[in-house]
Design a protein that fits this description.
Blueprint lengths: L2 H12 L14 H9 L7 H11 L6 H14 L13 H11 L4 H19 L8 H11 L11 H18 L2 H7 L14 H6 L6 H7 L20
């Protein structure tokens, strides 16, 4: 089992339980929003207006988006089923952080730590580091100390990013297809078995059986007269 399969298994087991989701630059906010959020979905007018307000803003700077995109690809590498970019994970993170402002300090503080750490140790930005250097950085922040009363800021940051990446990917169209999730599927119910009904001295009215246990007509809306009698 490769690392991606392991992550997928963990996600299916926990559905990323425990993910706590609770300044604007206008440079490319519209481009970011339209890439993944330009579709119709069930929202009230007030909710749609609120979403539009958020989508017309941009919290992360372009360099921060690039860093988050690279982090996301390291956390969940590309596969034939889909990539971080195809699933709109960077846009998802951008939206969530605007929707839950309590996440903003942790996210921006973590990105600042990452920038300073890489400049100090490698003399370049995180996205310019080699993959080995990038993994060396992540090895320092990807594993919380089980004995610590409070995790370091950079450890909390990476944990939050990891949860957002997994949630963003596996709730996207690409991610759901990769999981093979089918959702609720209609089945056929033929009523209570005859032998069970007979044991209780009961039976179905043949007229009702033909109307409501008929696969071809089960979705038709029943019609009743003023006396409560079934018409059709």
């Amino acid at each position: 089992m490769n690392r991606r399969d392991s992550i997928r298994s963990l996600f299916l087991g926990s559905m990323v339980g425990g993910l706590a989701l609770e300044s604007c630059v206008t440079s490319s906010g519209e481009t970011l929003s339209k890439k993944v959020w330009d579709y119709q979905y069930g929202r009230t007018p007030e909710e749609k207006a609120y979403d539009e307000e958020l989508l017309n803003q941009q919290f992360f700077e372009d360099t921060e988006i690039a860093t988050l995109t690279r982090l996301a690809n390291l956390i969940l590498p590309p596969s034939p089923e889909g990539t971080i970019e195809e699933a709109g994970v960077p846009e998802f993170i951008e939206f969530i952080v605007k929707d839950f402002p309590t996440l903003q300090t942790r996210m921006r503080g973590g990105l600042m730590w990452l920038k300073n750490h890489c400049n100090r140790n490698y003399g370049k930005a995180f996205v310019q580091c080699s993959e080995d250097e990038q993994f060396a950085v992540l090895d320092q922040i990807a594993y919380p100390d089980p004995n610590a009363k409070e995790q370091k800021q950079e450890v909390q940051f990476f944990s939050l990013v990891r949860n957002l990446v997994l949630t963003g990917y596996f709730t996207s169209e690409k991610g759901i297809q990769e999981l093979g999730y089918q959702g609720n599927q209609p089945n056929v119910w033929d009523g209570v078995p005859d032998d069970v009904l007979k044991d209780h001295g009961m039976e179905y009215d043949p007229e009702w059986t033909s109307k409501f246990l008929n696969v071809d007509t089960r979705n038709e809306i029943a019609q009743w007269d003023d006396q409560g009698n079934l018409i059709s």
